[in-house]
Design goal:
Layout (H helix, E strand, L loop, with lengths): L17 H9 L7 E5 L5 E5 L8 E6 L4 E4 L15 H4 L4 H14 L3 H11 L5 H10 L4 H7 L10 H5 L4 H23 L10 H14 L1 E4 L5 H20 L5 H30 L4 E5 L18 E4 L4 E5 L9 E2 L8 H8 L10 E3 L2 H9 L7 H7 L26 E3 L6 H7 L1 H13 L5 H9 L6 H34 L1
Antiparallel strand pairs: 1-2, 2-9, 3-8, 4-6, 5-6, 7-8, 10-11
């Protein structure tokens, strides 16, 4: 996935091959008014081939074609037979388990490869090799090969990350790398057969593909299609029972109706009861073919999400805006700030409504230490080294910040500073704080804009990093100006 309307796509390249298109049609993907395409900008995504109106279903995909994991599958590995033992499987987070499915499908030996290996050894298949063949042999490798390169900061060099001049992203990527290394090493330590076939860069690719393309949502207790057999049995029983004199026709009809309604009602009500009583939410994390090629746009947030159609047992995408033929059909990745969009998706969205800015811990410590007194924040922040060289990011801690650590000082574009921070520090001082933070960058916003506008000056990762830091500068500037205006109004009232 990339970023429709984004400042800089992050190289989320895929190859639209005849093999992938053929496979997608074979498994039942339906997109009558859209196709996969490469746009003039070089961005790849979903293009309308006919007028599409808001609310129209753009694409449907049978659930059987997707990779899925759920909150209730941690007790039994979806890759049995020693490929990934259950005690290893259950320690991975949902996105990690989904990445294991993807990695097994792409890197475990195919059925033909297993057969050749067995012949060379002069023996029959073992349970592990048979399971491996099943994991890799369902045809979805064609789809995974079509995804191609996934270029996110996980793969960037330290020098490329440094161009962003934003310590929080450096810290988060470092923590991400440490987590992924730990999970990868747990495969071989736990005796997973997958470890014998999965190189480390293959594991990173699988994770990046999942984090940039998968989505999560609520899960019903069972798909409707799996209930059809039970409903059919209930219907047959309702006919046979009175025919052989066990019950009266009226009793059979009432019993069949009650059983059917109870079964369907359980599927809808049980997840809600579980959430209310135990605080457990049944959820599904999915990687869906074809849908995963669609790009994000903030224009359609909350209006073009991917959903599961329970009755039809399929995924569906509904258009969040009108699109004319040749235009791009975008979906929503949710209310994501540029930190998440860059780290997990590899692109930046200009004027992102959900972007935020996290100050370095030193500034948060200053604000937390002021108590209920106003004033002094500018001097104290300067004493901590702001307004000059960038403050170093804190060391990576796998367990998160120590207990009692003050929450980081943060600006959100939609709300600015939190009300309690403004009440504690005062609008004027906070505006100066934002301006001090702007001063620590090595370039101005105008200089970054010129870099991005110059043909051929920046490409790839460097361009994305500069676009990211420019958006942070714009957010700081907007916030400072708004705070100055607030301070001016408060001054006039006084």
């Amino acid at each position: 996935m990339g970023g429709g309307g984004a400042t800089a796509p992050g190289g989320m390249a895929f190859e639209t091959t005849a093999a992938f298109s053929t496979w997608a049609a074979t498994v039942g993907v339906s997109a009558p008014a859209a196709t996969l395409s490469t746009f003039a900008s070089g961005l790849r995504g979903v293009m309308a081939t006919a007028p599409i109106r808001t609310g129209t279903t753009v694409v449907t995909v049978p659930r059987a074609a997707a990779f899925e994991v759920t909150t209730d599958d941690v007790r039994r590995s979806r890759l049995p037979g020693g490929v990934v033992p259950t005690d290893v499987w259950g320690k991975f987070p949902a996105w990690g388990r989904l990445a294991l499915l993807v990695a097994a499908a792409r890197y475990m030996p195919s059925p033909s490869e297993v057969e050749e290996a067995d012949k060379a050894k002069g023996g029959g298949r073992t349970t592990a090799t048979a399971t491996a063949a099943a994991a890799a042999g369902d045809g979805r490798r064609v789809w995974l090969d079509a995804i191609g390169e996934v270029d996110v900061p996980l793969f960037w060099t330290d020098a490329e990350l440094a161009i962003a001049e934003y310590p929080p992203i450096v810290t988060r990527v470092a923590a991400q790398r440490a987590t992924l290394r730990h999970l990868y090493e747990s495969l071989s330590a736990g005796g997973a057969a997958l470890a014998d076939h999965l190189p480390y860069d293959g594991w990173l690719w699988a994770v990046a593909a999942v984090r940039s393309r998968a989505f999560s949502g609520p899960k019903e207790t069972a798909p409707f299609r799996s209930r059809l057999g039970l409903l059919a049995f209930i219907a047959v029983l309702g006919v046979v029972a009175p025919a052989i004199g066990i019950v009266s026709p009226d009793a059979a009809a009432n019993g069949a109706l009650l059983a059917s309604l109870s079964l369907l009602g359980y599927d809808f009500l049980f997840p809600r009861i579980l959430r209310a009583v135990q605080g457990v939410t049944l959820s599904r994390t999915s990687l869906v073919p074809w849908v995963d090629m669609a790009n994000h746009s903030g224009r359609v947030v909350d209006r073009a999400d991917v959903s599961v159609e329970y009755w039809r047992d399929r995924y569906a995408v509904v258009a969040g805006e009108d699109v004319q033929p040749g235009g791009e059909v975008c979906i929503s990745y949710g209310r994501q700030g540029n930190d998440a969009l860059l780290q997990y998706f590899g692109f930046v969205e200009a004027a992102n409504s959900w972007d935020d800015y996290t100050f370095a811990p030193a500034v948060g410590d200053v604000v937390a230490g002021l108590g209920g007194t106003k004033g002094g924040v500018v001097k104290k922040a300067s004493d901590k080294g702001f307004g000059g060289a960038p403050v170093a990011a804190p060391a990576v801690a796998r367990g998160g910040p120590p207990a009692g650590t003050p929450p980081p000082l943060k600006i959100r574009r939609d709300i600015g500073f939190s009300a309690d921070v403004v009440a504690t520090i005062g609008a004027a001082d906070l505006a100066t704080l934002c301006e001090l933070e702007l001063d620590r960058f090595s370039t101005s916003a105008a200089a970054d804009e010129a870099l991005l506008a110059a043909p051929g000056e920046l490409t790839g990762r460097r361009r994305t990093a500069v676009a990211f830091r420019l958006e942070k500068k714009r957010l700081l500037r907007e916030t400072a100006d708004a705070l100055r205006a607030t301070a001016g109004r408060d001054g006039k009232k006084g």
